[in-house]
Amino acid sequence: MDYKDKLDKTNIPQHVAIIMDGNGRWAKEKGQMRLVGHATGVESVREALTAASEIDVKYLTLYAFSTENWNRPKEEVDGLMDLLVNTIANEIDSLNNNDVRLLTIGNTNDLPNSCRHELLNAIKRTEKNKGTVLILALNYSAKLEIKQAIKGIAEKYKKGEIELDEINDELIHEHLYTAGIPDPELMIRTSGEIRISNFLLWQLAYSELHFTPVFWPDFKKEDLYRAIYEYQTRERRFGWIGEQLNELDKND
Ligand code: IPE
Ligand code: IPE
Ligand code: MG
User: Fold this and answer.
1) What rounded mean pLDDT belongs to the chain?
2) Measured from the CA of 63, which atom of ligand 2 is nearest?
3) Catalytic residue among 5, 69, 97, 198
4) Residue 12 falls in which region: left (phi positive, over 0), alpha (psi -120 to 50) or beta
């Protein structure tokens, strides 16, 4: 089935977030080293990004490295950092040709210097692009993000810059890494795991969740279109009841 052609073009999510999982198991099934899975996963990043751009998804957030991932064997962590540096360096022209802007979320200051350097360079060189915004979650932890936001807000309160009553959803949003970026309407996780793993805890409050058994290196454009197609069949109620939403639709 060709899901792309079946999509309702008036209901494309603005922001799709993906937990790219299953690289290690994909490699193991093939009798390969885990790093082969990560390297093959880069091809799926291209697939997902091209697919998102083709249907005008404005923001695509990809969870690439969590703060917990530092606990992995050193050779895997080193391999992932090398892969990141090389991929970013190799892809800048392609990002520019496709009008893609690169951003990151997470504590990227604590990444190795070579990674930070490549990332800053790529962010700078793509900053004027107007197409899809690719947001890489790197050294990312949602709990840390929330903790940092709370500290930032507490600091302002202490200095008398804000009142307690001014601490609302908008102010919290402004203190997150994702300040200025709308919350994802859709979050996808590959590899069959059904958990959030410390990803975008605040931002996913009302996201539709899509879990697929496909390992990330096998993820193709059609998998993204299928997830969006299924998303379009959902009724997003935000606490209301279906009949109320139907009434609102009628009055539109
Ligand atoms: C996701 O694949 C990539 C990263 C977390 C960096 P995994 O490496 O977690 O693959 P599995 O879950 O072990 O199969
Ligand atoms: C989540 O995957 C992090 C990334 C995809 C970068 P993990 O494979 O690290 O998550 P857990 O440990 O299975 O929850
Ligand atoms: Mg995993």
Assistant:
1) 97
2) 6
3) 69
4) beta
